[in-house]
Write a structure and sequence with these properties.
alpha+beta; 23 strands; five-stranded mixed beta sheet; UbiD C-terminal domain-like; single chain; 30% helix; Pnp Oxidase, Chain A; nine-stranded antiparallel beta sheet
Length: 473
């Protein structure tokens, strides 16, 4: 059963001993972030900071610091539910009466999970008489940062065609009524924002929406629809009071704002790669209005050398992404982005059918999202991507570097990647660790795997189990 909102999730966590309330006040300047990092690295619980020295609203962090909490938030592994839902979407006009009946059933299921707009919601309970961003627990995490940042705001934006997109973009607070929006130019949200100039920045919607905010969804798929697929019920949205943007009605707080057309220097910021990202100009947002629930709680997240909370969000994203990728590339068996790999390292296994198949799959992944897959390792379908021994063996045995490592230069990348001297512009690499077909192996057959006859393996299994079990053959 989906959690109705963040408060429902927090109550569930507290009943399970997975949420701790901290009564001691800490500063949003360095201290709160340092506490959260230590607790996250140690595998500790979510923490509700009931007060800060600066008198801000309460903050909650480390919500997704364990995979168990992610699964609790998502109702389990997201892949099976999303794969099933995507597979049931109608993709062609119905043929005949029976096809039309099936199509009606598909549309009925779709309507249950589609987002719907409601007249009002808890997020609009309290209109703020005075706009004051300094009341929010914006944090300074590292001493080299120039100011305070809102780290877990979800920016909702609508394009001219009516499509709604949302995602995490860090927000540097400039003053009581303005902030800087850090979004990369190739992101869908940035394109929509340039068109509409209106944004709604949401804090603390339901936990599935929070998780999906960190997952790129292929155009033109509506991310709010995907949230409904995972929740099993449609997301309730309320239209903005001062902006033409919908956002989750049961959120804790929303900032409605407009892009002024100006830019300001943002950063440096201590990022998830464990280094400072460079200061660069990004768009300025002027706040039009703030609304909230009574006694709102504001989520925060922290960055630093992995693995922190974002590692589990990446893990959630890989499971959701697999469902999308398999719709486009049915030959893909599995996908794994190790949490410590920052989303830059991707392992993908395929049912290989033709020469160059590995490179084609890697190129398709790069096209889906420049943010991820900087180093893409393609392996055969029988390789367990989560078993380091299996992966290491396949790479070591099957890769001839001069033939099997392909580098594509001059490609969009994540701006936070410290390896590229020009932010947002670098290269991608495909490592083909599959067994080679004759066309890829000079016309010769690739050496076969060592396989014992089945009857010998069965005999060996029976005898070894008796020995290892302490019995006699």
């Amino acid at each position: 059963m989906a959690h109705g909102d963040l408060r429902d999730f927090l109550s569930d966590l507290e009943s399970r001993g997975q949420l701790v309330r901290l009564g001691e006040s800490v500063s949003v300047d360095l201290e709160l972030a340092a506490v959260l990092r230590r607790i996250t690295y140690a595998g500790g619980p979510a923490v509700l900071f009931e007060s800060t020295r600066e008198g801000t609203l309460p903050a909650v962090g480390n919500l997704f610091g364990s995979w168990g909490r992610v699964e609790l938030a998502a109702g389990g592994d997201p892949y099976p539910a999303l794969s099933s839902a995507l597979g049931s979407l109608p993709t062609r006009p119905p043929s005949g009466i029976s096809g039309a009946i099936r199509s009606i059933g598909d549309l009925s299921r779709l309507s249950r999970v589609a987002p719907r707009t409601v007249r009002s919601g808890p997020v609009r309970e309290v209109p703020w008489d005075e706009v004051d961003l300094l009341r929010l627990p914006a944090i300074r995490q590292w001493p080299g940062e120039p100011g305070r940042f809102l780290t877990m705001g979800i920016t909702f934006v609508r394009g001219k065609g009516g499509a709604l997109d949302f995602g995490y973009y860090r927000l540097q607070v400039l003053g009581r009524d303005s902030l800087i929006m850090h979004w990369m130019p190739w992101r869908r949200g940035a394109a929509y924002g340039e068109e509409s100039r209106q944004v709604a920045i949401v804090f603390g919607p339901d936990p599935v929406t929070m998780l999906m905010a960190g997952v790129p969804v292929p155009h033109p798929m509506d991310k709010a629809l995907v949230v409904g697929m995972l929740r099993g019920e449609g997301l309730e949205l309320v239209r903005g009071e001062t902006v033409d943007v919908e956002y989750p009605a049961r959120s804790e707080l929303v900032i409605e704002g407009e892009l002024t057309g100006e830019t300001a220097l943002e950063g440096p910021f201590g990022d998830h790669a464990g280094v400072y990202s460079a200061a660069r100009p990004y768009p300025v947002v002027r706040v039009r209005a703030i609304f909230s629930r009574r006694d709102p709680v504001i989520p925060v997240t922290v960055t630093g050398r992995p693995v922190l909370e974002d590692g589990n969000i990446i893990r959630f994203g890989e499971r959701a992404a697999l469902a999308f990728v398999q719709q486009l590339l049915p030959e893909v068996v599995d996908l794994h982005m190790p949490p410590a790999g920052l989303g830059y390292l991707t392992l993908v296994s395929i049912r290989k059918r033709y020469p160059g198949h590995a490179m084609r799959v890697a190129a398709a992944l790069w096209a889906l999202s420049p943010l991820y897959h900087k180093l893409t390792v393609v392996l055969d379908s029988d390789v367990d991507l989560r078993d380091p021994t299996s992966v290491t063996y396949a790479i070591s045995a099957n890769v001839n570097p001069g033939r099997d490592i392909r580098v594509v230069d001059g490609y969009p990348t994540e701006e936070l990647d410290p390896s590229t001297p020009t932010p947002g512009f670098g290269s991608k690499a495909c490592v083909d660790a599959t067994r080679k077909l004759p066309e890829e192996y000079g016309g010769a057959e690739y050496p076969g795997d060592l396989v014992a006859p089945p009857e010998v393996e069965e005999l060996a299994r029976r005898i070894s189990e008796s020995i290892l079990g302490g019995g006699r053959a």
